[in-house]
Design goal:
Layout lengths: L3 E4 L2 E4 L4 E7 L5 E7 L6 E7 L4 E3 L7 E6 L4 E6 L8 E8 L16 E2 L3 E6 L1
Parallel strand pairs: 2-11
Antiparallel strand pairs: 1-3, 3-8, 4-5, 4-9, 5-6, 7-8, 9-10, 9-11
Amino acid sequence: QVQLVESGGGSVQTGGSLRLSCVASVDCYSMAWFRQVPGKDREWVALMTKPGGVTYADSVKGRFTASRDNAAHAFYLQMNNLQPDDTAMYYCAARQNFGAWGTLREDNAYNYWGQGTQVTVSS
């Protein structure tokens, strides 16, 4: 059973920064961050593959930066210039095997999920 342990959430004011971390118990091909606000669908935020492919949702492009430490099975999300609309529970997701690039933004591409870490941005 693959385990994902997230950390780094918290409360900041508009314009602040946070860094989320996700550590997997095994090597994973693709790791992603999703976020969800109560009453809304889960939203993909960013993903990064082991070879280094990375992409972001338009809503966070230019503000968030994903990175990985493959040796440590770790995946990070540096979030800068946070806005109130970024307030959500953030979930790390992972899949061990190769997945087609075009499918990796979908939550059903991932079979392992973390417990979530809350990010709250106040105005």
